[in-house]
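ingest -> validate -> predict -> emit
validate: passed (alphabet ok, no gaps, 260 aa)
predict: started
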Amino acid sequence: MLNFLGLYVLGRDTAVYSGSVIDVFARVDVSEEAVRSTLTRMVSRGLLTRQRQGRRVYFGLTSRATEVLDDGARRIWDTGAVNRDWDGTWTLVGYSLPDSRRSDRHDLRSQLTWAGFGLLQNGLWIAPGQRDVIALVEPLGLTDHVTAFTAAAMKPTETAGLIDRAFETAAIREQYKAFLDRWDTPNPLPSAPDDLARRLLLHTDWLQAIRQDPHLPAEHLPKDWPAIRAEQLFRRLDEEIRPEAIRLAEEVLDEIPLVH
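emit:
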């Protein structure tokens, strides 16, 4: 759903009719019940706003959802598959939260993972380069529970050892390989009914591949690291199917101006 909203609602200042969202997701075998449930849940989480026109219900993005989707777009289009500009420093984040705040711990860990942090040891997360920790923890209301600083590794600690301990490089590699296995074919995803469905699945698979990728320094990755080839494929396929996907989206989606 986030991919769909990022592709066809973000930046348009419109609200989209729930029935047309259901039509889009039917193309990728997602049920009407699942779509309605997801939309309702996103309203309750402050990501979508609901408005009516006649008997129809439309959904638009909140400012919070726009921030989330803008961040996702930067991750997909601007960050790149590997880090070629690493300055040798690490951002370190530690936190202490009681068991009674288990949900906050889960949210913080999810944000740290998305931002490229890996768990080095109990309660201590690291990411290559300098990261904006305030932007991660302030929306969660956890600034008083987090300690953050930057540092460089020194002997006897080796960078390769830090990467091996904090990041699941084998699992990251497998995500990219799975993406290539599915999409690097002469006729990718022939089961998709059209390019609207194909593009939605392409972006969903790509986000799944990169969401666990901490953007590790290129000089410490194997020469056959599959991320670059996977990214080139993703960009080429998106360019090929984007025009028809957008045409179909304009044909299917019923939109009205978003009421602020």
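Residues 4 and 200 are 6 Å apart (CA to CA).
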